[in-house]
Amino acid sequence: MAVRRRQQRATAGLTLDELQAEAREASEFLKAMGHEGRLLMLYYLCERDHSVAELERLIMSRQAAVSQQLARLRHEKLVTTRREGNQIFYSLADERVREAVQMVQRLFRATAP
């Protein structure tokens, strides 16, 4: 008799309410990443912490636009801040954010022939 492996179900035995709460949280997380400018900033923040001025130069965008997008990332708890003198540095909030950004990079990065 062959032994059958149990497939892990996407629902993992959760109730509908639990699945809806999980889906709602994931949806908000993905919406926060779902902007080209915000995603670019997250790419750079995967490498190291950056100041607003550094991010402006890296993504070639105006300070107002960078600050607005960073505010959204802060609000959604994808990034955290620390102050050094008169500069504010941004970093990824946690490993979950890093893993999500790296997964996006793996899925969409062009591979060399």
UniProtKB/TrEMBL annotation:
Organism of provenance: Roseinatronobacter thiooxidans
Annotated GO MF terms: DNA binding; DNA-binding transcription factor activity
Entries under Gene3D superfamilies matching the protein: Winged helix-like DNA-binding domain superfamily/Winged helix DNA-binding domain
Presence of the UniProt keyword Magnesium in the record: no
PANTHER family: ARSENICAL RESISTANCE OPERON REPRESSOR ARSR-RELATED (PTHR43132), HTH-TYPE TRANSCRIPTIONAL REPRESSOR CZRA (PTHR43132:SF6)
Protein name stated in the entry: ArsR family transcriptional regulator
InterPro entries (alphabetical): ArsR-like_HTH, HTH_ArsR_DNA-bd_dom, Metal_resp_trans_reg, WH-like_DNA-bd_sf, WH_DNA-bd_sf
Keyword Lipid metabolism in annotation: no
HTH arsR-type domain ranges (all copies): 16-112
Top-rank lineage group of the source organism: Bacteria
NCBIfam families found in the cross-reference section: HTH_metalloreg
Swiss-Prot/TrEMBL keywords: DNA-binding, Transcription, Transcription regulation
